[in-house]
Structures are given as C-alpha cells and as structure tokens.
Amino acid sequence: MAGMASIRNIVILTGAGVSAESGIDTFRDGGGLWERHRVEDVATPEAFARDPELVLRFYDMRREAIQTRQPNAAHAALARLDAAWPGELLIVTQNVDDLHERAGANRVLHMHGEHLNAWCTACDARSPWRGPLIARPACPECGERALRPDIVWFGEMPYRMDEIFAALREADLFVSIGTSGAVYPAAGFVRNARDLGARTLELNLEPSQGTLWFDEARHGPATELVPAWVEEMLAG
Ligand code: BV8
Is 112 a catalytic residue? Predict the structure, then answer.
C-alpha cells in the first residue's frame, strides 16, 4: 500500500473473522451462530426479558467455548504491531472473546462487551466472570442475583463510542479485519475514517458489505493477510 511511510496513527477494527481460525464461530458464515439461533431470540434486551434462561445458556456456552481456544497468527501479529508501533494505535474489536489480550495486545477496546465479564443490572458493577450465569449467582459487589452477560445486544449502545471517534479523528490509516460490515455503527467507521482523511484498508476472507468504501482490499485468511500486513508496516 503506497504512502505507508506517512502513517503515524492507526485504528484497527476487528470482527469474528479474526477469531475464526482459532475455532470460534462467526455469525454470518455458513454454519455460523445466526444459522442456529435467531438474533431476536438471544441477542436483544427483549429476548433476555422474555426468556432469560435461553439467553443465559447461549452465552454460558460461548463463554465456556472461548476458554478452550487459543489466539492465532493474526492475533499474534496485531499484538506485535501494538508493542512495536511508535504512533497511536487502537484495536477496536467487535469480538467478545479475549484472544487479542491473550496474544499480548494492550491497546484493545471491546465496543460490544466481553464474554469474561458479568454486568449487574442492580448495581451496574461489571465483574470478571468465567463460569456460567444460568444459576443466577449473586453479584460480587451488591449480592443481588441480577447478573447478565456484559454484551452489547442489538438496540443497545456500543461501549466507548467517544473514544472510538476521537481515535478515528486522529487516524492516518483505518484497517478493517475479519468483519462482514453488517452491523452499525461499526460498519460505518470506514466512511467516518475516509471523511476524516484516513487511508482505508480491508483484510477479509471475502469482500465485506462495505468493501467499495475501502481504498484497498485484500482477501484471504486472516492468519495469512494480517502477519504480511504487519511485517509491511514494521518494515516501512
Ligand atoms: C445500536 C454482541 C443504537 C452479541 C453484537 C437498520 C439499518 C442500520 C442499522 C440498524 C437497522 N436496524 C437496526 C440497526 C442497528 C443495529 C444493526 O446494525 N443491525 C444490523 C443487523 C442491520 N445495530 C445495533 O443495534 C447496535 N446498537 O445501533 O444502538 C442506539 C442509539 C442510541 C441509544 C441506544 C442505542 C448494537 C450492535 C451490537 C450487537 N451485538 N455482538 C454477541 O456477540 O452475541 S453484533 C455481532 O455482529 C458482532 O459483535 C459483530 O459486531 C457483528 C458483525 O459480525 P462480524 O464480527 O462481522 O462477524 P460476521 O460473522 O458477520 O462476519 C465475519 C466476517 O469474517 C465475514 O466477512 C467473513 O468473510 C470473514 N471471515 C471468516 N473467516 C475468516 C474471515 N476473515 C478472515 N479470515 C478468516 N479466516
């Protein structure tokens, strides 16, 4: 990608595709999560109010599954970039697994929450949580049996949007990795970045819904594309 030498501040958006090769189901690929569960049945506040046990089991299963998976070469490459990059760098992830952190990345922002936290609807505290929630355990802070997954459901406001837009305003380069571009506001970040003067790059198995908004798009598995791109950036 020409002009990489003038890049100082980078925003990276990742989605389920960056964890696919670690064996974590994506949402919209064949056999993905939404083929087996209707979104409105398991990933909305209304679903949780209507059938809390169904929703809690859905997230208990996924919270347990991610703890049996390992980061892949794409997570490792992004962690290398995070450690070595002298300018600003922010990994905004839509993923709710902890594979970026376990690969060693530090500058990570989970805009859609995290499997390994529980959120108390009584006292609003968020507590690290690795076990199931189906038995409605007590909140570690207030003791109320009012914990829910710390996940941003459809219709809920994603986390830390002000920080994300502050980073996009400073970005010279916006890179989208492993996301279908199906869900907003994340899917619109490429257009925000362009309007704010950043160069834009898509690294994805196949063209995303927003692929035409990117200056450049490379298609293939993340474990091949991401290490190659990181080496390019660190060599630059
Ligand atoms: C909000 C947590 C407002 C849940 C998630 C009509 C038009 C536009 C918008 C809307 C609309 N109606 C409703 C909306 C808003 C809605 C939305 O965008 N809906 C879409 C479906 C139309 N958005 C929201 O509700 C958001 N909130 O808008 O709030 C508001 C305003 C004011 C006040 C209050 C509220 C909240 C959205 C967050 C929902 N939660 N996740 C959970 O995890 O269970 S979304 C979920 O899907 C993921 O988190 C992710 O963010 C999103 C997209 O998934 P991807 O990560 O992209 O995964 P996907 O499977 O789709 O794609 C995988 C990609 O990887 C593919 O492209 C594939 O090719 C690629 N890939 C696969 N393997 C590999 C690979 N790439 C590389 N290598 C590989 N090996």
Answer: yes
